[in-house]
Amino acid sequence: MRRILWPLAALLSTAAVEARADDAQARLGEVDEALNQAKDQFLEYEMVDIKDGKERTLSLEISMKGERRLTAFTAPADLRGTKVLIVSPTQMYVYLPAYKKVRRVASHVTEQGFMGTTYSNDDLALTRYSPKYNAKLTADDEANLTLDLTKKSGEEAPYARIVMIVEKKRMLPLEMKYYDAAGKNVKTETRSEYTCEGKVCAPSVIAMRDHTDGDHISKLVRKKWKVNSGLSDRLFSKRSLARAR
Amino acid sequence: MRWLAERLVRAKVAWAVVIGTIVLAVVSGALAAKVPHDDDVLAFLPRTDPDVAVFYEINRRFGGLDVALVGVATEDVLAPDFFAQLASATKALDESPAIDFALSLANVDDFVPSTDGGIETDLLVREVPADEAGRRALRAKVLSRDLVVGQLVSAELDAALILVFPAAGSDPRTFADAVQATATEHLAGRKLAFGGAPFVSSYVFAATQADLARLTPWAVAAIVLMILIGFRDLLGALVVLFSTGAGIAVSMALMYLLGVSHNIVLSSMPVIAFSVGSAYGLHVLARYQQLARDRDPSEALVEALVSVGPTVIAAGLTTVAGLFSFLAMNVVPMQTFGLYTGLGVLVALILALTFVPAAIRVAGLKHPRGEESTSALLVAAVAWLRARRAAMMAVVLAVAAIGAFFAARVDTRMNLAAFFADDSPPARADRFLLEEFGGSQFIQVHVEGDFSEPNALWQLFHLADRIEALDSVTSVQHAGQVVAQLNLAMQGARRIPDEPEQVKLLYRFLTGRPAIGQLVTDDRREVVLHAKLAKSDVDSVERALADVEAIVAAGLNGSPRDVAIGRIEIATRRAGATFDADVRARVYVALAAPVSNARPEAVAERLAVFFASDESPVTLPRAVASEVAAVIVGVGRGAGPSGAANDGAEKDAAAKNAPAKNASAKIAATLDRLVTTLAPHEDAIGEVVDRTLAEDLLAASVTRVNEARRALIAMDRAARVRAAVDQRIEDPHWREHVTAVMTIVDAESLEPPPLEARVSGLPVLHRGLSRSTVDNQITSLALALLSVLVVLTIAFRSLRAGLLATSPTIVTLLAVYGGMGILGVHLDMGTAMLASLIIGAGVDYAVHFVSAWRTAPSVAVAVSKTATAIWTNAMMVAAGFFILTLGEAKTLENVGGLTAAAMLTAAFATFVCVPVFSRRAPVSLEAAQHAAAPEAAPQKS
Q: Cys bridge to B860: B5, B488, B608, B931, which one at CB 3.0-4.6 A?
């Protein structure tokens, strides 16, 4: 009898685990959907970067459509007019007003801070998690759930593991702890003060803390936000980079 | 004194004093063990010295003094297995909590123009190719990076270096230990060298502690043996040793209670306090033993204190005053040393007059059996000297004169070799860095100005090139090189960009890169140039420093042609070719020759490459790109010169020479021609061909045409320079370096905004420290000797007696410092402490001897009263410190050896100078020997 029961129990147990994994992966898909509700977005941010007690402020405008993203710096003066166009995770262009030219940037150092901030190019380019990560549900309470994401084998992903706390009501991430391959928590990102335009929600404050760099922190405070304003595809082209807005 | 002595011989009082002292010593010992150790070398810096003040400021802003260097020897740094180990070690170091970041070939990043157009930012070495051809290409790439070769890898690629920067506030020894442990684990089986200040201070501390732990029992045994030989009384010896140790413990306990840290200068405090302080108890013990021969012990004890007490007090207070004279110095640790050593000696003095007699009373010490042999021999020697007073005076004065002559030649320069032996790890690391990386010592030049200005950066290059041209300098690193390397990615030339906005933008790309913080401040108002020296011996470093200072003094305002020639000289020397006065003259002529314009066809060819690249507003098929380029530049296939791009490129000239309307018409015509040229290829282009597209292409071409023209003219000029140099140059980077600088040759001026440069670095710091040590030494010695003379004159109520008692100290000082001059021992903060020891011991011995002679009926009696205590003290300290010279720590070897020599010299000088310089009547040898006998009758003098 035991010979029959044990394999059966194991089978049922495996099935249960798989069902839970499927459920967690579906939840992660919901997060991706919630994050990518807008057809396009335009945001103005003020970024405060604090490292070793020194504080500097940058102002930037971000236009997003699909996975394309155009970042234009408006302050400080030496960065004003600099634009970064991400067409895909592997295709990035930068317009340098001081040189009056567009340059293609083939960056393999994607984990390095962008313009000295705690945000890497990878962080900026990561807009969907479910294609790159397997999810496991590790906590589920009334308000939030916690998803433990591990990199899918064969996928190029910036972090080996992400522990994501998600607000259940809108399936939006509140906190993400990023881990390297050695299991070390290298960064922590918090997204707070979400506001919504219809189904599209976005945080008003985003902060990224780099634990490997003396707790270096970059904090983005949203100043302006437009949703589905009909941004043209032409905006996300090389030709538009050198043109003034 | 009699009042005190009579109370101390009472049993209850004696027991109370003994128990109280033991309790005090135990409590003090427990507190003394908690005194923290401070390895911060900057604490020693006399901030009032200008060189030291500049060094301190630079180190505070740029760091660098506390960087640990891990050198790794290998056959090939680009061998896959080695590179994997290097990457693993760098990553592990980088993640250690005690470490801010680690930089090596495995994680240094790189900005280069991409082969398919654009900028490529990547690690310089992401992975080592499996095939030999790939590795050859990688080797060439690594060797082309000025900021990497000689800094992170050796020129032969057979050694790698990891630069490790400590986390803010991390303890230097914890940091050094973490680096060593991590590197050893991840680079197992490799030959490692650990260099840099953290390892040096860590090694010196560890080696000293290990030697002290190993040798102290032997030193104590030697000291006890010497006391036993002198006094034949083990218990008495232990009492004296205990009272001196208690004095040191009380002083250190005070340090703990007042929050004072131990440091490398204060570490000699117990040495000095022990050497000087132990004499007081010995004098009391010796006199007691003499008197106890034929008296009741209590009576002998009282009389001993009464007779020797005032002299001990006078000698002690004189020494304490001499030590407190250190408070006049401008170096805080030296002041602290003087204060706490003085306190230690003072407590030892008090205990010698209280605890020692009380312990003698409690222990019931009696006169040891046996007769003294020291005194008889000495009495004979002193009598012999007295009999030949004039001749001996001449000999002593001659010795003093020779001593003074060589003392004036004591090398006062800081010599790092004095801190560790030739075969010690820091010395081996130093040799490794010298052999593989061209040196381990740096001179820094700190320059203030606006380094967003291209001209300021060009002048920085010029300064660096002049310094690198010195034979004593192997390489120079500065922020200009980093900006030029980034500009190579942006503009295709390894040079300073033309516009301040471009420089500012490049700095932005560098923001957050930790290694940049060593070269330029965040506000770009200060830079530091690091010149690596080819040799690290004191003479070579001093010469290099003088040369660099001369270059800096000459100013930072080179003409465009001077700056260019400086760059060409360095590139040529690096390529292994000669750059002498003849070559310089030929290059100067080549640069002065007029240049012709770039060929339009060549410009069009470069522009076509751009249009076919991914960076073009619209990537054009190659054939179409050539056609479009020809239209814009105005060449080929009957397109006719449009002049549009030329107008864009030379807009100032166009604005002056042609009416705006005419220019607009030309641009319009060019745009029409572009639309016509592109229209047939609309499908291939994948964009609607219209006027807007033509405008985008024309606008994007302006910068590219300019750059192409300048590059072609620069290449033409570089070819002429190549002919002028007229030597075989195989370095593939020579042309690139020379071409890059050709663009400034025709500039009217490279006059920068005001720049202010100051030379700094460890060699300058050492010079400042040496200067400070000498100044302080002279000041404190003068003060100490003066106070000794004043105190002794008052004590003896005679200037002559005061001078007589001071004479052994002066002769000892001259003899010991003269000996240092002859043996080439450098005067530094450690050896400078000797003066206080010599004054303490010299004064003590002389005071006791002169005092005894003044009250004794003869010199023989005075000798017999004092010889045992003086020689026992000198011999025991000398023996103890000689034992410490047998260890590995060079600091102990120097201090121990010199202490031993100084103590013996001070004792010897006492028994020579006082009899020779004293005007009292000579004593015949027979009379002296007779007087030395215990039953000798008092003799009038």
A: B931
List Cα–Cα distances, B238 to B230, B278, B881, in angstroms.
Answer: 13, 11, 18
Question: What stretches of chain A show up as alpha helix (H) in DSSP?
Answer: 2-35, 121-125, 238-241
Compute the half-sphere exposure of residue B440: CA atoms within 13 Å on the CB side of its CA: 26
What confidence tens digit (pLDDT) does each residue in B675-734 have?
A: 999 999 988 888 889 999 999 999 889 889 988 998 899 999 999 999 999 888 877 788
Percentage of chain B with pLDDT > 70? 89
pLDDT in tens, B419-430: 777 788 888 888
Distance CA B384, CA B70 (A): 63
At B416 the three-state DSSP class reads: helix
> What does the mean pLDDT of chain B come to?
83
What is the Cα B371 distance to its own chain's centre? 55
> What's the rounded Cα separation, in Å, for the pair B175 and B659?
70
Give all domains of chain A, ordered by start, each with its CATH number: 24-233 (2.50.20.10)
Residue B177 CA to residue B171 CA, distance in Å, equals 10
Q: Is the pLDDT of residue B445 over 90?
A: yes
Q: Does B126 contact chain A (CB < 8 Å)?
A: yes
C-alpha–C-alpha distance, residues B627 and B633, integer Å: 10
A78 and B505 within 8 Å at the Cβ level: the answer is: yes
Show me where the domains of chain B are located. 2-39+203-417+764-932, 68-195, 450-578+727-754, 600-716
pLDDT digits (tens, 9 = 90+) for A10-36: 544 555 555 566 789 999 999 999 999
Identify the three-state secondary structure at position B163.
strand
Inform me whether the pLDDT recorded for B663 exceeds 80.
no
Q: Among partner residues A98, A106, A212, which is closest to B499 by beta-carbon distance?
A: A98
B451 residue type, one letter: F
Of A214, A79, A48, the residue nearest B517 (C-alpha): A214
Whether A103 and B100 lie within 8 Å, measured CB to CB: no
The answer to whether B39 touches B383, Cβ cutoff 8 Å, is no
Q: Collapse the DSSP code of B10 into the 3-class scheme (helix H, G, I; strand E, B; otherwise coil) and give the result.
A: coil
Nearest CA in chain A to B92: A182
DSSP letter for each residue of B376-415 = HHHHHHHHHHHHTHHHHHHHHHHHHHHHHHHHTT---S--
pLDDT tens per residue, range B165-223: 887 667 778 889 999 999 999 999 899 999 887 888 788 778 877 887 788 788 878 88
What is the distance in angstroms between the Cα of B621 and the nearest Cα belonging to chain A? 17
Residue B934's pLDDT band, with cuts at 50, 70 and 90, is very low
B127 reaches A (C-beta below 8 A): no
For range B643-656, the mean pLDDT: 48
pLDDT band for B924, please (50, 70, 90 cuts): very low
Which residues in chain A have Cβ-Cβ distances shorter than 8 Å to B513? 116
Do the strands A172-179 and A40-51 form a parallel or antiparallel pair, or are they unpaired? Answer: unpaired
Best B91, B121, B523 member to test A by mutation, with max A CBs in 10 Å, is B121
- Answer for the pair B821, B409: CB distance below 8 angstroms, yes or no: yes
B491 in contact with A, Cβ within 8 Å? yes
- Do residues B882 and B221 make contact, with C-beta atoms less than 8 angstroms apart? no
Q: What is the pLDDT of residue B151?
A: 86
pLDDT at B105 over 90: yes
Q: CA-nearest residue of chain B to A119?
A: B512
Contact B615/A238, CB-based, under 8 Å? yes
- Specify the CATH class of B2-39+203-417+764-932 in words: mainly alpha
Residues of chain A contacting B, Cβ within 8 Å? 51-52, 54, 78-79, 82, 93-94, 96-109, 112-113, 115-117, 182, 184, 212, 214, 238-239, 242-243
CB atoms within 10 A of CB B933: 14
